Every structure is written in C-alpha cells, then in structure tokens.
Amino acid sequence: METFEVLAKKKRREWKKRTIFISFGAVLLAGGLAFLIWLGLSFLSTQQYSQLEDYYYRRTAIAFPNMQRNNARITSTSHLKGTYQANLIKDIDGIPVKYEEIEANFSVMNWQHDSLADVVLPSSVEQDRTEMAYSYKSHQKAALFFNPKASYNPEDIIRKPAQELPYLADMKGQLVEVAISFDKQYTLAELEEKLPKNLKINWYWIGSVSDLNTSNQAVRYLFGWTPRKQWLEPDILPI
Hints:
- The protein has 239 residues and is α+β, with helices and mostly antiparallel strands.
- The chain contains two helices and nine strands, in the order αβββββββαββ.
- The strands form three sheets. It has a four-stranded antiparallel β-sheet with strand order 1-2-3-4, with helices on one face. A three-stranded antiparallel β-sheet has the order 5-6-7, with no helix packed on it. A two-stranded antiparallel sheet has the order 8-9.
- A hairpin with a 5-residue loop joins strand 6 and strand 7 (141-142).
- 10% of the residues are buried.
C-alpha cells in the first residue's frame, strides 16, 4: 500500500503533466486564433485595395476624359494598410503627357479615393463666370463640361464654353488638346462628318438627358466613352 507521500508525489507529477499539456494546448490555440485573425484582417485589407483598384480602373476606362493610369504602385504603411499611387496620363495625339498624380489610402475597414485629383478650380478666385478651369494639384488646364439643357437657380454660377478654337491658327507646330462643345445633339456619324479628318478623337462625353448643371461637377461624375475602330480596313488587309 502506497504511503501518503508517494501518492502525493504521483498526483503532483500528474498535475504538472496536465498543466503543461493544457498550457501547450492554450498556446497553440491562441497562436492559431491569432494567425486566423491575421489572415482575416489581411484578406479584408486586400479586399479594400481591390475595390480601390477597381474604382480607378473603371474611372480611367470609362470616365476620366482622355486619361489612363501609369506607374501604379503601393506603399505599405503597415501590413494591413497602405497608399495607392498612380500617374494620370493624357494621350495627346499619341504622345503621353503627365496630368495629375493619384494618391489614395486603404486599410482593413475602408478605402478613400483621392478627391483632390478630381477637383477643378476656376481660373478666377472670385468664382465668377470664368470659362476656364485648372487641376487642383499641378494647376494644369482642365476641361469643363456643359449640359445645354441645364436649368439654373438664381444663386448658380453660369459658365459658358470657352471660345478658343480661333487661337489654333497661331499655334502651328504645337501639340494641342482641344475640348469641343456643340449646341445641339448629333449622331456619331454626323460628328465624324463635321470634325476634321486629321483630328484625333480621344473621348466623347454624351452630355445629359436631365436639366442638371454639370459645369461644376467633379471629373469622376462625368462619364464618357472612347471611340473604338478596326485596326485595319477590310480592303487593306495583308495578303
């Protein structure tokens, strides 16, 4: 028959083994749980970045007039958040010209587009009836878009399209980007007939069917489309 001391020692060893086993299991469980949480947060952060990337993909594909992204990159401020950066490039007669730089943030919970890259500022500090506007960051000439059917309130700033075509005669040999406005609706076939054949058309804005005043809207709200044509006409296909 075991003495009390021997029995106590045996129970103590069993308790130590049990304590070590429970502690080891708790560490594994906590580590596994922490790893799963880390994976979950990483997944959420990746999802937020994907939404931000998709936002700018859609904007540059079907919205921003005559613009594409270039040199897109991510700067991670931590494993779960970062900054998305890209250059907006304009295609002017086949020559890429830098416009603005996008800098947008994303994290586990949300993403924010770069609102300053969308803002245009009128050339007059008084916000009067000026017909020209410039980008906020680099102060480059920006296009304004007008809805001929717009209705205005008494307090609205009423701007009219700038009449700058006559200046082209004095700009021979220069690379020029021009936004042309029309006083009524035309079909694509009618526009192709009216516009000069040597003019490269990069982007069409189709206006609005509403009476909304669009001259003070941010660029990201003004959706347009890029004309697509065949690379080769059927009668000049290679043999």
